[in-house]
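Entry for S-adenosyl-L-homocysteine complex. Fields follow.
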Amino acid sequence: MGDEALLRAGEVILLVDLRRGKRHLVTLRLGQAFHSDRGFIPHDTLVGAPEGTVALTTRGARYLALRPTLAEYVLEMPRGAQIIYPKDLATIALFADIGPGQTVIEAGVGSGALTLVLLRLVGPTGRVISYETREEFARRAQRNIEARLGPDVPLTIRPQDVYLGIEEREIDRVILDLPEPWRVVETAAQALRAGGLFCAYVPTVPQSQRIHEALAAHPAFALAETFETLLRPWNIAGPSVRPAHRMVAHTGFLTLARRVQPDAGGSPGPAPPVASDEDADAADGPGPEGA
Ligand code: SAH
């Protein structure tokens, strides 16, 4: 392994308390120290150490030092607005089919969790344009993004209300995390290229119903689907193999639709293939072919 692998001054690392599981993001700076309620760790003992090192505080508590994954980073980074959780970020990545070279419109930027995922997926040849009305959130998100990716990212933050319209055209994806996504449907239809994808994340059932119905009724959108993702952690410790007692029971619902040729949409589409169609047919009795 080369020196690349060794922890460097200036980078953000994750310290995990091995007894209690608590996690901390720390920017390594020579001469500084990480303080816990059980003593401290001088950063100088971490700079130059390989990833995966266990460091001891002055009172013997054990901390594991690693570079954070993107999911670990977004969970621990400072928040202005509530973030989208990793299980939903992962789902958006594939169901909204974000990929290299795309131009993606996002609103709003919030704390920048989704923005970081979009930037990773579109890569250096893509572009992310984030509409955000609140300046303090834009600043917070920019700090979080720069701490992770540096200043050189293909991101434009527009200090604008997306309900008043999207200026860009021939966009690949529009991804929304704000309270009234149905107010963006018409402008998104104009901004998206044919075949492009619309995705909205909302926390409540009435919001989901409203955005789903707006997309399903719009002549330039088809294949509207709405679903949620549940993630249940398991406890695996000797004979105790069972679901964890606690879980995040609810975050939000995703609603997706495809931008199609004008008048190719606007009617209720087929049931979405989120689960396997074969499973669904088996549960409902004989499907079209079996009837
Ligand atoms: N997805 C973000 C969190 C977004 S929170 C993350 O993962 O970190 C919702 C954000 O939408 C807030 O920052 C809010 O200021 C912004 N917002 C709400 N309405 C808006 C509008 N009409 N136009 C632009 N931004 C808006």
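NOTE: The radius of gyration is 22 Å.
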